[in-house]
Amino acid sequence: KIMKPVISIVVPIYGVERYIEQCARSLFAQSYDALQFVFVNDGTKDRSMEILNGLIESEYSHLKDRIVIVDKKNGGLPAARRTGLEHVTGDYVYNVDPDDWISEGSMEKIASVAESTDADIIYFHYVKEYENRSSVKTEGFYTGADRASYVRNMYNHRAYGTLCNKCIKTSLFRDHQIFVPSYGHAEDCCISVQVAGYSSRIERLDEIIYHYRKNNPTSLTRNGLKRRKKEYAMNFLGLYSKYMGLPADENPIASIMDDIAIQAGWYSIFYGLDLFSKYDFLASAIRK
Fold first, then answer.
1. Would you call 124 helix, strand, or coil by DSSP?
2. Which of 54, 110, 225, 256 could share a disulfide with 155, CB 3.0–4.6 Å?
3. Other Cβ atoms within 10 Å of 135 Cβ, number
4. For all residues of the chain together, what is the average pLDDT?
5. CA-CA distance, 223 to 225, in Å (whole number)?
């Protein structure tokens, strides 16, 4: 059992000069003090890093020993998250996107659940923040015993596959070679289904923690439909190929293997994606 767990917050940064201050303030102002902040500069070309560094110097220099800033060449969101994870020293890791923010007192609430339950995953509710309205996304109830259905529901959009509504034990990433996909679309779901599949204790925190900005014109979800479907399918086919040789009792995503194959095949035909020639196992996986 972890007394006063340290939570590492990983924030990838690219092209968010309009939003990074609000995000960073919401993190630095948390009342819980056992936090590590890992900011990954994904080769951003705007003033995002200048604004972040200015804020740290002018108002939060007392937190400097807990702040890590990593600079890397631009490689996209999944690679930036992977880089951030390499610098995490906490017991838990929490992924926050740089154009979003978290509620006051959030980390105190998450840490309290972590301390009392020693959970592998603590998940919670979030809010989609539009220009002039908010939409609360309440998560259903899952425990470690439900992990196969939790994985299946995340994949089939009946539970949230986002990383922003989950605080995850760092050891899940360290002990298992979690597949990090190449493309930005649904990369969080790709990671979420694996860590959930490896978890023995899953706890629900009945609180709104995260505020997800839906009016950022440069966000990934605004990419074209065909491109999104292709990235989604290719990310999950990469996941499929990682686990396809494993027996079901050792496969964290056993409950969605068939779903991945069938959906990828359907997408390939419907959107003209030519995935059958790219993934030679796909046709036989569907037949099976």
1. strand
2. 256
3. 11
4. 95
5. 7
